[in-house]
Amino acid sequence: MKQFMYKIACKYSDDIVFYFDFAGNKYVARGGTVAWRINNPGLVPWHFLPSREYGSIGTFRPYAIFSHPQNGHRALNAWLHSKKYLNSTLYGLAQYYQPDSIEMFVRTLTSLSEISPERKIKDLQQQEFDRLLVSLEKLCGYAPIGNESFLLLPKIVGKIEKRNEGDSYIIDGNIVLSKDEAIAWIQSHRLDGVVVHEKDGSVYLRSRPNHCIQHLNGRASELSPYEENIDSLVRVVGEQRPGQCIWAFINGILNTKDGALESAKKISQMASGEQVYSMPNDTYLHGFKDFLVCVALKLTIDTPIVQWAVKFFRYLLTQSEREHFPVIVFVHSQGAIITEHALEVLTQKEREQLIIFTFGGGSFIAPGKAHPDSHNFASSADPICRALSPNLQFLALQRYFGSKEGLNEQEVIRQLALTDAMFDLDTVDTKAIAVYTNQRIRHYEKEFFKIRNVTILDPDPHHLHKFCSSCYQVAIQKIVKKYQHL
Known about the structure:
The protein is of the alpha/beta class and 486 residues long. The protein is 41% helix and 18% strand.
């Protein structure tokens, strides 16, 4: 199912449509029917003036491309209520949909909708009108045919330069491709990148605007974390104050020592200069080590940094036992992935004493994995959460965008269930649709329970993923204010 967040879309070929979200990420809709690829169940034309109001973000031949199939469904509803069709019968609709086979189209539509061909649309009861909408969408082919796919294209995030061997490319932190493989992926629309052909015959790869490729070069020995004792390497900013919480911070990828300490200082400043512990997670090799660690962790392979985090958490708990104050840990980006793995090593008692807040995390800390107050925050435009926690992020985004439309969680769940029924079922039987919809509602209620500790924030357009993002800093300020004087 496609999401609400797309900014623009365009036709690439008769079988492929590209979508771009507000963060600049690229998606490809491939195969299936035209109605499915363009989120336009009723094939509403692009020149229908209210189409833009209902979320039209591009055109595919004479049809509008919508940001979500629900938007296309609403546009169809509005189109049939327009002056053009409100006084029309099914024959008027046939003039648009199948002008060369009017009688056949009307017979089929009559059979599906159980509406007499002479009835005017304005005279239909609501239940009849709903049947007409569903029937039109069936005739337009808005149903799966088995070969459709909708994918977020991964990006080239790093180039591994080797003097005596061919260059390799790191793809979104968890795949390494040769140059030839990366070119093949781009040309087959499996990778978000650009192949550049020079006049001298040389070929190189580059990213699209607003995305950069890290050039990496270094020794494998530099990838290992520190081996010293934890209490000799924990970094501290601020001053220990009587009665203060045990504040801590774990940074994400591409953070130098100075960058991580700067983030820890921001937390300390919000807490009136109180002491904050920072766990070393410094970038090496211009980020090469960071990406390799992310790869391993997302593949459920524990790396030495996980044991390092376990030591760090136990160090914090030791401080807490002395001071008898709660442990509040702020983690960003890759820090959330490391934390997720470290929690699996800690005992249940230890986990329950850690109040963890993730920001733009590569993982979400599940309810029950740490102290009940633990929570996950993500900007609605943060690409890392979308790429590394796609399923939970998708549901959290649906809830977020639904709230923007004035919907509560149960109403969002019902919309998702109805969309599933419209997409999955090849029937207009209202009882069958109702049974399936209720099943999907129960499914989504269970899934939404898993994200009860996830909050999507309005994005900071200048810092989509950085810890210094204004939306993250506002949330941190509220947390500090809540716990500072407990």
